[in-house]
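Problem: given the chain below (81 residues), write out its structure.
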Amino acid sequence: MPALPPHAAGRARGPDLLPTLVTLDRPDGPIWRYREDHVLSLLTREELATWHAARATAERQGLLMMAHPLHAAVRPQALER
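Solution.
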């Protein structure tokens, strides 16, 4: 087992929190549709117009992608010293 980094030495081991971003770059895929539908449901009419204009521009330029924050908690096995 690898050594613990200096900042973790002597620390009680509990769940590790792993914040991350999931990036989506396939607008025709089912995960994109699911995530975009959720985002669109939260927008006002004015914000929807802005979203659709920005989305169309990004798609034309080949820059269309989304990122969504995710989190996970992982409880590691007991560390051997």
